Amino acid sequence: MILEGILAVLLSPVCLLLITLGVIVGIIFGSIPGLSATMAVVLFLPMSFGMEPINGISLLIGLYIGGISGGLISAILLKIPGTPSSIATVFDGGPMAEKGEAGKALGVGILYSFIGGIISVIALIFISPSLADFALKFTPVEYFSIAIFSLTIIASLSGDSMINGLISGLFGILMAMIGIAPIDGYMRFTFGIHQLTSGFDILTVLIGLFAVSDIIRFSHQKAAGQKGQVTEYKIKGFGVSFKEFKEQFWNMIRSSLIGLGVGILPGVGGSTSSILAYSATKNASKYPEKFGTGIIDGIIASEASNNATTGGALIPLLTLGIPGNTVTAMLLGGLLIHGISPGPLIFKNNGVVMYAIFTALIVANIAMLIFEYAGLKYFVKLMDIPKNILFPIIMVLCAVGAFGGNSRVFDVWSIFIFGVVGYLFIKANISSTPFIIGFILGPIAEVNLRRALMASDGSLLPFLTRPISALFLIGAVVSVALVFKKKLKEKDRAVPDAV
Description:
Blueprint: H1 2-10, H2 13-31, H3 37-48, H4 53-77, H5 87-98, H6 102-135, H7 140-151, H8 153-156, H9 162-176, E1 179-180, E2 187-188, H10 202-219, H11 242-247, H12 249-264, H13 270-284, H14 296-320, H15 326-337, H16 346-349, H17 351-374, H18 376-380, H19 387-406, H20 409-427, H21 433-455, H22 461-465, H23 467-498
Antiparallel strand pairs: 1-2
Helix pairs in contact: 1-17, 2-3, 2-4, 2-17, 3-4, 3-15, 4-5, 4-6, 4-14, 4-15, 4-17, 5-6, 5-14, 6-12, 6-14, 6-17, 7-21, 7-23, 9-21, 10-19, 10-20, 12-13, 12-14, 13-14, 19-20
């Protein structure tokens, strides 16, 4: 059964061609701001219905892997996360590109995307049933505690001013609350504007804060109309020396495990895993002050974690029939259409298909590595385009991407609104990272808090009496305390220097 499933992919030219096609199309969708792996899978899902089950599912897997990884291209070159999963890649990838190290940043991102993806596939193959059983122990109580623990990242990513970081984070939570409230459907902060009923889409927020705000900032500089910088793309291998690889080994493992764990939890997503991994790497680093200035540590953390999330999200899908994110929800539809019912008996009833899926995941990650590396020098050429030509093209792509998500002109206006917000943040020296963290994690915390309180008749005791929940809440307190301790030490050191 195992050999049959593997050979069904490796010895089928049609299947290999579909995986390759899926990866290439996925990379394109992931690299264009506003498009995403989800959109790629949605568009190709109807095409897969008329194919053989293994071929159809392999195509969708190729789109998934390519789409998630493709986001690093625009995140590094344009400082725009191509997908929400690539948010943290911008933090150090963008500065590296500005310093003329776009080739090295892309090479590092591609390599560790591949490694994170392969680690998640290995986990999917060997320990998926056990991990899925553990994930079942999570109730809304645990999800709320995880969200609170994750929100403490704001403290470590606030930059020089903790107050500015908190303001940014709270503003992000406030923006996420606009629209229909979860659970009871109450209308909040819409001010009678019906377009606000659905709130703001995460992609429009990301495009506005990272892309439009940067374009506004550059338009005020004299160099905006000059030629683009000449970027060196001739790198040895993937731009990582053996010494650097050894130094970053634990960063790679830690970030991959974070991505794998977050992927297993339904509804959390790659954007959360990349930010969590980035924060964990920064806190464990001997030089945290360098993060955000352009170092490979941040890129490795983000890309290893968000690509490890792909395999992690498939674990509850295949073993329990529970999709971990939007893309796997689409994959669930594809499986069901082909008569494959995910669940504990899938290995018994559809063993050949399962091992074909495992093989397709490995092949898709290899194809992603090959095609992204092959296109490296062409990607970097984007940096050489004069800004007065590049920026209008970016703006058009941003507008198309914003409109394509929900087919709303309102979303196009939203990117300009958040572009202005991002520009004001820059002028006021306020980091936009806490805003994004609050915007993503705020709704997760709110939904699960309300569900938990409904289940416990309003009692807060379960948050403290359930071991996993209590562990994350204690971790949140410790995390904030360590950041404050670190800030006080920095302040004490700064006083004698000033004297």
